[in-house]
Write a structure and sequence with these properties.
- The chain is built from ten helices and 34 strands.
- The chain is an alpha+beta fold.
- Strands 11, 14, 15, 17, 18, 19, 20, 21, 22, 23, 24, 25 and 26 form a 13-stranded mixed sheet that branches. A five-stranded antiparallel sheet has the order 5-6-3-8-9. It has a four-stranded antiparallel sheet with strand order 1-2-7-4, with helices on one face.
- It starts with a helix and ends with a helix.
């Protein structure tokens, strides 16, 4: 109750302050230097975090001689920099090159071509040089910087992984990586055998050493335990340099992933004891991987499609309390690991048989007494009533079929003489009250929609909406909360309502699954497509990959997902090719006062 009381003012403050969330991409500059007929050729590319090129952008390049940053010959060579040669059978590697800055410290500005590439050449002193490359960024992508060191007195070495590692599974005891070494000099490229290469991680911790063979390749075998914890990282292959060949470093960004298993040790040893599910059954679940206990994410318990318990993972253990209605002598509970990051991948959903014990007579006594009291109350009320008209029966609702879905049900129609609407708003999955939700009724007009009545729920999710005069049949009722998605239904008859809302983060995930199933393969998979799968299936489709990544961060991240975040992510949804050119109308904003200015802004 204290946590709930503290949470509501914070939410109200956040809404009042108008917090806005903007999703921006990041950029990366990759550069390489070689020599051709005594001149420097510095080439590279500018790409975003999805690997898409960023064309027609200015990359600023500052080059200095390491031993003398003010060397006059180097400055003179830079001021005479020009674009790389273009031929008819090769695309341009820059749209232009120009020299800017002061006379004694010039900078090179290269304009990227349609492939995000840039290149310039200049005659410099054959010595070791330092280079700093930078891009200022754009409205949607953050800027980028990179540093490069090269030596024009020796052969230029190019290192690369073959194949390039992307996803590194930590479940395999031994991992192998292959690297290739090539020498570029005077416009020719050839393999380089006999080089001692070193493999390291992003912390520059050595993972292995190898010498290139006659094909210029070497193989590293690394224990998975030495790769580091699950998450994003990097692999670095490097050469220290010798008398003929310059030093070189190549970095590949990787993502270390691991499979996560869940099990109930007490069930394996036959130690589960029968208990009353209505009172809650405690269940300790071990969560582990090949790297040891897992301390992130959570575990969800389901009977059929109904979630009966959930708990976060702490130090490799999730302590659940299962609560459900008993049916039979045992229940089959499915356990599922819910990751908080994409590099933890659930491995299977084990099933546990939970024995059930019915409540004792002492436990049933309060229920029996309460039932007798209710019966007596209704009998007394019926005798005292002057009207013989029977009360309308509550509408029968298939609760199990609607668990986890947004809904608006009429629990009890208004009795004779009653007006207006009253009821309770709860979470569709947890059945917990949703405080601070707004319930309103509006009607279509020539200028849009006009709000007729509006009210907010209290801390218990309870609301009461007054009667509305002059109903014409075009009215609709809408319900929305700060963290729960909007539900819009035709205006129900007056009476007692039961309203269930779905969290916005769950609604985003449902929309992604529906989109993937509608598009079919390769986006749709069994049992259910995930944001990570959609991102990988998108391949070169940057818009789809960016949207799936945003959904993954919103659904599995720790930040709250409010209406602004939901709208920003929905704007990223890639259009369906079959319905391109037919945009759908956006839903109106929740009313904050019902004035004409607010209605105009919503339209």
């Amino acid at each position: 109750m204290v946590a709930w009381a503290l949470w509501l003012p914070l939410c109200a403050s956040a809404r009042a302050d108008g917090i806005r969330i903007r999703v921006r991409g990041s950029a990366k500059i990759v550069a390489h230097a070689t020599r051709d007929q005594g001149e420097l050729i510095l080439s590279g590319s500018l790409v975003d975090d999805a690997g898409q090129p960023i064309p027609a952008e200015s990359v600023t390049i500052h080059v200095t001689r390491e031993s003398d940053p003010r060397d006059a010959k180097v400055i003179e060579g830079l001021r005479a920099a020009r674009t790389c040669d273009r031929s008819t059978d090769r695309p341009p590697t820059a749209y232009g090159v120009r020299v800017v800055g002061p006379t004694d410290a010039p900078d090179i500005v290269a304009i990227t071509d349609e492939g995000g590439r840039f290149c310039f050449r200049a005659k410099l002193v054959p010595d070791r040089h330092l280079t700093h490359l930078s891009w200022r960024g754009s409205n949607l992508v953050d800027g980028a910087d990179a540093d490069l060191a090269f030596d024009l007195s020796r052969q230029s070495l190019v290192l690369r992984f073959d194949p390039t590692p992307r996803i590194v599974p930590l479940d395999t005891p031994k991992l192998t990586f292959e690297a290739a070494a090539l020498v570029e000099d005077d416009g020719t490229t050839q393999v380089k055998p006999g080089l001692a290469l070193v493999l390291a991680n992003e912390k520059n911790e050595e993972l292995g050493r190898g010498t290139t063979d006659s094909s210029g390749r070497t193989r590293f075998a690394v224990d998975a335990a030495r790769m580091g914890p699950p998450g994003r990282g990097a692999l670095r292959v490097s050469f220290a340099g010798d008398a003929q060949t310059a030093f070189a470093v190549h970095v590949a960004e990787i993502e270390r992933r691991v499979k996560v298993t869940v099990r109930v040790p007490a069930a394996e040893r036959g130690e589960l004891k029968a208990d009353v599910p209505e009172d809650g059954i405690a269940l300790a679940v071990d969560v582990a991987s090949a790297m040891g206990p897992v301390s992130e994410g959570g575990v969800e318990a389901r009977i059929g499609d109904v979630v009966v318990g959930a708990a976060p993972v702490e130090r490799g253990i999730a302590r659940l309390t299962l609560t459900f209605t008993a049916q039979g002598n045992e229940a089959l509970v499915h356990l599922r690991y819910v990751p908080s990051a994409p590099w933890y991948e659930p491995l299977g959903e084990p099933t546990v048989k939970v024995p059930i014990r019915g409540p004792g007579l002492a436990a049933k006594a309060p229920i029996l007494l309460a039932g007798l009291a209710v019966i007596a109350f209704f009998l007394v009320g019926r005798v005292a009533s002057k009207s013989n008209k029977p009360e309308p029966e509550p509408a029968k609702i298939d609760v199990e079929a609607k668990v986890g879905k947004p809904r608006l049900d009429v629990v009890r129609p208004a009795a004779h003489g009653e007006v207006g609407w009253r009821g309770r708003v709860v979470d569709a999955h947890e059945a917990t009250p949703v405080g601070g939700a707004r319930v309103w009724v509006d009607r279509g007009t020539f200028e849009g929609r006009s709000v007729l009545a509006s009210v907010s729920t209290d801390a218990h999710g309870v609301f009461e909406l007054p009667d509305i005069q002059g109903i014409v049949g075009d009215e609709q009722m809408s319900v929305e909360a700060p963290l729960h998605a909007r539900l819009v239904q035709p205006l129900p008859p007056a009476g007692e309502l039961s309203i269930a809302l779905v969290l916005r983060r769950r609604a985003l995930l449902v929309r992604l699954v529906g989109w993937a199933r509608k598009r079919g393969k390769p986006f749709d998979v069994k049992p259910e497509p995930t944001p990570g799968h959609v991102r990988r299936a998108a391949a070169d489709d940057f818009q789809t990959a960016r949207w799936a990544d945003a959904v993954e961060r919103a659904v599995f991240g720790g930040d709250a997902v409010d209406a602004r975040v939901e709208r920003e992510i929905e704007r990223m949804i890639p259009p369906d090719p079959r319905t391109a050119g037919h945009p759908t109308a956006a839903a109106p904003e929740a009313p904050e006062g019902g004035g004409k200015a607010e209605e105009d802004e919503r339209r």
